[in-house]
Amino acid sequence: MADTTTMNEDPTTAPADERAMRLAKRQALIDSGEEAYKRFFDQTDHAAELAQRYAGLAAGENTEDAVAVAGRVMAKRDQGKICFLVVRDGSGDIQVFARVNGLDEATWARVKDLDLGDIIGVRGTISRTRRGELSVMPQSVELLSKAVRPLPEKFHGLADKELRYRQRYVDLTMNPEVKDVFRKRFAIVSAIRHFMEGRGFVEAETPILQTIQGGATAKPFVTHFNALDQDCYLRIATELHLKRLLVGGFERVYELGRIFRNEGMDYKHNPEFTSIEAYQAYTNLEGMKELTQGLIQYANAQVNGTDVITYQGREINLGGTWPSRPMT
Fold it and tell me: Are residues 126 and 86 in the same domain?
């Protein structure tokens, strides 16, 4: 895609005239009887699926295959009688190649009036341009959600760490690679549960509000339980209640749960985080080491499909039997 209109870097401090212009467009839609925020669009296709399905489509080749895609307008190049859009959905980007003679007057006007950040639904056919870009040739374009704040300027991107971590939704919008981290996390959590279930562990949900803070040494968050007129703590560990389940007769228990520690914070350390704790009767340190190694190896295999990972520029082989070292 060629260069696009640039936007203000921080979407929370957009120039007043830019936001006012978008608000005016939204009001004009409402006044004309159109919905600025549609309730439904029958999305049948995603960018990544289409890229895979039509990988063999030659440059300049057209099809009559009907598709319906939806996503956020990330780039727009208006060349008079033709207009190129880059639409980003949950799987990736796809180009929409709109032509004045391919759309009715109202739809063409809607395309020309789109702003970066708007969410649209497009129905049309699949083609590959002479330059080799897989594209949807639209027959209809619907505005699904009008964006009233501009996206960060595309050339500098969203680089400010403070903004990225405080406004994750903007980070996800502008930096697609961040979605891969989230997807891997989802897959890791799923793999952990599958592994633990296969080992006969029962997943527990222990109380988050506790009357004593225990299981670790950390400063707790304090809250008040009105019904009992009693101060409580957000848990700093799941340990004590999991051990009570062992007392009650469960032999293998674990919990993937949120922990709260009222301590230091930076972009790598959050006072609210997820931990896993597991307890198993009739085993010892060696058994727990074997469990830990097996869990990490299994989750890695499910997510990455290989024993070798790269971390901070260094290759690490997670396969085989790990060496055991004393903490000292």
Answer: yes
CA distance 277 to 298: 17
Split into its structural domains, the chain has a count of 2
Are 92 and 50 in contact by the 8 Å Cβ rule? The answer is no
Q: What is the pLDDT of residue 196?
A: 98
Q: Which residue has the tokens 């063999």?
A: 56
Phi, psi of 100 (to 5 degrees): -60, -35
Task: Give the residue among 292, 290, 262 at the shortest CA–CA distance from 276.
Answer: 292
pLDDT at residue 231 in the model = 94
CATH of the domain at 121: 2.40.50.140
Per DSSP bridges, beta strands 134-145 and 93-99 are parallel
Assign 292 to helix, strand or coil.
helix
Task: State the Cα–Cα distance between residues 67 and 43, nearest whole angstrom.
Answer: 8
By mean pLDDT, which of 15-24, 35-44, 108-117 is the weakest? 15-24
Mean of pLDDT values over 189-201: 97
**Global pTM?**
0.78
Alpha carbons 273 and 234: distance in angstroms, whole number: 12
Q: Is the domain of 216 the same as that of 274? A: yes
Same domain, yes or no, for 104 and 191?
Answer: no
- My answer on whether 279 and 170 are in the same domain is yes
Distances (CA, A) of 288 to 3, 11, 248, 319: 55, 48, 21, 18
- Please, which residues have CB within 8 angstroms of residue 37's CB and are 6 or more apart in sequence? 144, 145, 146
| CA-closest candidate to residue 203, choices 164, 273, 257 | 257
Confidence of residue 16 (pLDDT cuts 50, 70, 90): low
Q: Are residues 66 and 137 in the same domain?
A: yes
Percent of the chain scored above 90 by pLDDT?
A: 77
Q: CB–CB of 218/275 below 8 Å?
A: no
Query: Averaged over 202-231, what is the pLDDT?
Result: 93
> What domain range includes position 110?
11-156
| Tokens coding 130 | 């002479």
Both 281 and 216 in one domain: the answer is: yes
CB of 253 within 8 A of CB of 283?
A: no
